[in-house]
Amino acid sequence: MRIGVAGKGGSGKTTIAATMARHLARSGLAVNALDGDPNPNLAVAIGVPAEEADRLQRVPSDELEERTDGDSSSMHFRRPFDEIVEEYGAVGPDGVRVLTMTGLLGAGKGCICGQHSAVRGVVAGLGEERPDDLTILDTEASLEHLSRGTVRHVEGLVVVVEPYFRALETMKRTVPLARELGIPSVWAMANKIRSADDEAVIRDYCERLDVDLLGMVPFDDAVVAADRNRTSLIDHSVDAPSTRAIAQAADRLTAERVAVGPQS
Ligand SMILES: Nc1ncnc2c1ncn2[C@@H]1O[C@H](COP(=O)(O)OP(=O)(O)OP(=O)(O)O)[C@@H](O)[C@H]1O
Ligand SMILES: [Mg+2]
């Protein structure tokens, strides 16, 4: 199963992607975590030690090749995913394989469309090469992942949303784009919830957009403390309300997948 995590800047995408990855890996899944943000910090949020995370390399363009299938062509790794992770990525706690996906075509080349198309191809390729894995793609804070179709090959998109107007409006623009791309499941995931009013405004938007609310994560000082200490939330506190809410949402994601059955 391949899942993308999108949402407004600072909404909590990386925290949620990383905590879901760790929790699902603990539950026994083989988990790949792809950082699609040009300013990558997923590895640290997953719990890769900071010094090791600093040494992670972005995958260079010569590891990719273009494959043509009929009228369409897409980018793929030339080598098995495990070899790519071994060389450029890291195997984090609970066996989560972490790879930094951006910068693929090198810096200074002007346009980043190539990067978007590479991420798109790699996500699709993982579905073929490792169909039983759970792959989580953390995205940058922009609608480009949707307008350029970077997340086209995920089977589910989790749109992280905070309970304030601009974040909710971002979700309102994101959901139709995701549906236009044909992503089979689009969920909202509320974050930094502090009150019943916060909950109500999120539920109201979800209802109007006809989007399923996957979970509700409270504002939690444990997230702030984990971030400050450059550690993962799940290692900082497995029992924190935020950790538990994210774990529960991750379980729901995978359970719904079982209910829906395999999708290509
Ligand atoms: N539930 C929460 N409670 C308190 N603080 C939170 C919560 N979730 C995230 N944060 C804080 O919000 C900030 C942004 O979180 P995070 O980096 O996960 O968001 P992001 O959407 O990935 O950001 P970016 O758009 O920059 O990639 C961090 O300082 C993080 O500690
Ligand atoms: Mg982020």
Structure, described:
The chain is an alpha/beta fold and 264 residues long. It has a single domain, classed as Rossmann fold (3-Layer(aba) Sandwich), CATH 3.40.50. Helices cover 44% and strands 22% of the residues. The strands form 2 sheets. Strands 5-6-2-7-1-8-9-10 form an 8-stranded mixed β-sheet, sandwiched between helices. Helix 1 (13-26) crosses helix 11. The longest helix has 20 residues, at 241-260. The protein starts with a strand and ends with a helix. The protein binds adenosine-5'-triphosphate and magnesium ion. Magnesium ion binds at residues 13-14, 37, 138.
Give keywords.
Rossmann fold; binds adenosine-5'-triphosphate; two-stranded antiparallel ribbon; 264 residues
| Run of helices and strands | EHEHHEEHEEHEHEHEHEHHH
Q: What structural class do you assign from the helix and strand content?
A: alpha/beta
Assembly classification: single chain
The distinct ligands, each listed once, are: adenosine-5'-triphosphate, magnesium ion
Helix content: 40-55%
CATH domain class? Alpha Beta
Q: How would you name the CATH homologous superfamily? A: P-loop containing nucleotide triphosphate hydrolases
End-to-end Cα distance, whole Å, is: 9 Å
Q: Mean pLDDT, rounded to whole units? A: 88
Task: Report the strand count.
Answer: 10
- Give me the CATH architecture, please: 3-Layer(aba) Sandwich
